[in-house]
């Protein structure tokens, strides 16, 4: 009965006029959220979130109707790498630090409002996002604020994980701001568990089996800081970040017959980042300058011991990135027009060296010593025009040119130039609804690690370094409909289609005495994705303070297999994913509880001599959060309540696949077990 009533009320909300739209949000008028008074911007004051008793700005972002946090992509350069949240109208200069962590440092008491900006003429650095959230902090925020957080988890097998975080924000005279954060942590890899493996002949008979006992996790430390002040009539921002971490993987494999095998993998990673940004208004124009330097060192050692045999694999990688970006925008208010242009330059490099031994004898591997360098430049221009209050258009063009060079075992040099046009049309018929149509040419980025050979001692698979890899190129069309209702309710539906050229997948790489799988381009492909996001307040169906949030995504991909010549899906794409979260705020008791679920379908990877299908059973979790005072937060959680199984099926072929049945099939199932966690957070200063 409740379900049918909810469906009827939801349908009424979607079909109704603006009276069902936003009632709490107001239009902003603060200079820190430039453009907030435009038609395409919705402003949610701090009072809008008060009933949910948020602790940090991240909690507030999670309760903002119709907005989903996007932390950006892991790509070289700045375009597309940064997420869809601004802080006081500015982008964080950090690229490596998680955007969610940055937002979580801001206490809810410091937030004046959150603006959801959907107007391309708002004068903000939206970096290609159709919608961004701008967190506007109070001008009268306390001089010093901070928090100390202790989180601990108990996993199966009496394994413990802890994270101790201290963070501080200090406002100084003259608009100066200092932010510091440090953490010591250790964690348990919740995808590594105990299980069993079976190897069968394709006709069914058992060839061998083994029990698998796995333990994996790591520990590390990270420290970061940020500084902001006025300089030369503009705003200067700087950030620094340093992370050191060790990850260890241990596997004990006990076969029904034969020698026990033990595999140990150790990986040490050190990352450093320094960023600078300066922004200044010159009348109706605004200049933004950004510089960024990152460095990374990654050392890995894998050892496999079985009986008298021993295999070793070593990998050493060092990488760096240097970025400079300049952009200038100008608002022609009388013509409802914004013009923006700029340039970006980047130098990226990676040095990789690998070695392998089998019973003390060196194994020759392709692309074992490689240095990759990329010099890339990009020029861009964007025009945003609002011919009337409910309609806006954005047209842009980016031209990218790059020179990629490889030295070492596989010398290569290639220069590429791509033009990337973009058109975005936005129609806002009323404050509660919006339609967006986007057509854009998108260019993928090459992973430098793909040029270096890698190996997995667990599966015995060697992946050769790519010898002639080109970036994936796609024409993308996307249609989005978005509607807000019942103050906190929102629904978004999106249909995306891509026509892909030079699709990146897996290819066969051969040479003198070897034949290995490698990353490569396999021709044209298609990808279609349908996605629905829903935030449904449950007050009107009898559950006061309740909120149901769901995201469902269905994807279809199609490409021609280079080995068999048959049509198949692209490697690594999950055809179906869904996330569900039900929360309820017990507002008179300062309590919030919730249930979560993650559901997905199997995804596959196609190599020239095997097909791997990996399937994760649903993940279920529950939490309860108590805020006894504005300064204290206590959280309890239970994760993996269904003790999900991770299943990996490998179809193995003695020769390249040609559409015939596999020669052997390997079945592997592992479970990691449920675990519980406790979090204590103490706010200092402002809360």
CATH C-level name of the domain at 1-138: Mainly Beta
Low-confidence stretches: 6-24, 26-38
What structural class is derived from the secondary structure elements? mainly beta
Helix content: under 10%
Question: Explain this structure to me?
Answer:
- This protein has 687 residues and is mostly beta strands.
- It has a domain at 1-138: Ferric Hydroxamate Uptake Protein, Chain A, domain 1 (Beta Complex).
- It is built from 3 helices and 37 strands.
- The strands form 4 sheets. The chain has a 22-stranded antiparallel β-barrel.
- The radius of gyration is 27 Å and the shape is globular.
- The relative contact order is 0.11.
- Residues 6-24 and 26-38 have low confidence and may be disordered.
Compact description:
It contains 3 helices and 37 strands.
List its traits:
22-stranded antiparallel beta barrel; 63% strand; 687 residues; mainly beta
């Amino acid at each position: 009965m409740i379900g049918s009533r909810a469906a009827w009320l939801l349908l009424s909300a979607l079909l109704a006029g603006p009276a069902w739209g936003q009632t709490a949000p107001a239009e902003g008028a603060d200079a820190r959220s430039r453009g907030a008074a435009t038609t395409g911007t919705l402003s949610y004051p701090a009072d809008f979130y008060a009933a949910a008793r948020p602790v940090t700005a991240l909690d507030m972002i999670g309760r903002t109707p119709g907005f989903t946090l996007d932390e950006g992509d892991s790509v070289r350069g700045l375009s597309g790498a940064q997420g869809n949240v601004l802080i006081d109208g500015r982008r964080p200069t950090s690229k490596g630090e998680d955007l969610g962590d940055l937002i979580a440092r801001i206490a809810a008491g410091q937030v004046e409002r959150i603006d959801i900006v959907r107007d391309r003429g708002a004068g903000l650095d939206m970096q290609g996002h159709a919608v961004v959230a701008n967190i506007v902090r109070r001008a009268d925020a306390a001089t010093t604020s901070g928090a100390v957080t202790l989180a601990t988890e108990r996993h199966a097998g009496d394994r413990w994980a802890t994270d101790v975080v201290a963070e501080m924000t200090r406002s100084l005279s003259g608009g100066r701001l200092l932010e510091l954060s440090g953490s010591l942590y250790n964690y348990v890899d919740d995808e590594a568990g105990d299980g069993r493996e079976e190897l069968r002949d394709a006709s069914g008979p058992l060839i061998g089996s083994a029990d698998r006992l796995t333990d994996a996790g790591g520990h590390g430390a990270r420290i970061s800081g940020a500084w902001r002040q006025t300089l030369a009539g503009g705003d200067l921002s700087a950030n620094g970040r340093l992370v050191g971490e060790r990850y260890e993987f241990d596997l004990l494999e006990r076969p029904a017959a034969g020698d026990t095998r033990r595999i140990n993998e150790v990986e040490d990673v050190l990352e450093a980042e320094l960023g600078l940004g300066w922004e200044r208004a010159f009348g109706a124009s605004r200049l933004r300058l950004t510089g960024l330097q990152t460095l990374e060192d990654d050392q890995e050692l894998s050892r496999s011991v079985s009986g008298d045999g021993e295999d070793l694999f070593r990998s050493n990688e060092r990488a760096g990135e240097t970025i400079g970006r300049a952009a200038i925008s100008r608002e022609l208010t009388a013509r409802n027009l914004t013009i923006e242009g700029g340039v970006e330059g980047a130098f990226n490099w990676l040095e990789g060296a690998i070695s392998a031994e089998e019973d003390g004898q060196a194994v020759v591997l392709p692309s074992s010593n490689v240095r990759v360098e990329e010099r890339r430049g990009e020029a861009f221009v964007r025009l945003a025009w609002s011919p009337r209050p409910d309609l806006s258009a954005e047209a842009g063009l980016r031209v990218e040119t790059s020179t990629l060079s490889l030295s070492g075992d596989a010398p290569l040099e290639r220069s590429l130039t791509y033009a990337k046009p973009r058109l975005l049309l936005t129609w806002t018929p009323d404050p509660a609804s919006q339609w967006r149509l986007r057509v854009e040419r998108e260019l993928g980025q090459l992973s430098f690690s793909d040029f270096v050979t890698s190996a997995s001692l667990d599966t015995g698979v060697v992946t050769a370094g790519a010898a002639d890899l080109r970036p994936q190129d796609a024409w993308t069309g996307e249609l989005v409909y978005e509607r807000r209702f019942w103050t906190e309710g929102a629904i978004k539906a999106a249909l995306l289609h891509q026509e892909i050229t030079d699709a990146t997948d897996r290819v066969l790489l051969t040479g003198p005495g070897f034949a290995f799988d490698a990353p490569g381009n396999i021709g044209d492909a298609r990808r279609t994705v349908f996605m629905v996001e829903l935030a449904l307040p449950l007050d009107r169906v009898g559950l006061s303070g309740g909120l149901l949030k769901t995201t469902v995504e269905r994807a279809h991909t199609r490409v021609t297999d280079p080995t068999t010549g048959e049509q198949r899906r692209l490697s690594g794409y999950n055809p179906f994913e869904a996330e569900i979260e039900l929360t309820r705020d017990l507002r008179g008791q300062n309590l919030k509880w919730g249930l979560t679920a993650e559901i997905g379908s199997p995804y596959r990877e196609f190599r020239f001599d095997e097909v791997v299908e990996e399937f994760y059973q649903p993940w279920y979790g529950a939490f309860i959060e108590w805020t006894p005072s504005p300064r204290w937060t206590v959280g309890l959680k239970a994760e993996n309540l269904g003790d999900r199984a991770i299943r990996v099926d490998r179809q193995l072929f003695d020769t390249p696949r040609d559409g015939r049945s596999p020669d052997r099939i390997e079945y592997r199932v592992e479970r990691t077990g449920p675990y519980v966690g406790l979090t204590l957070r103490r706010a200092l200063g402002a809360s």
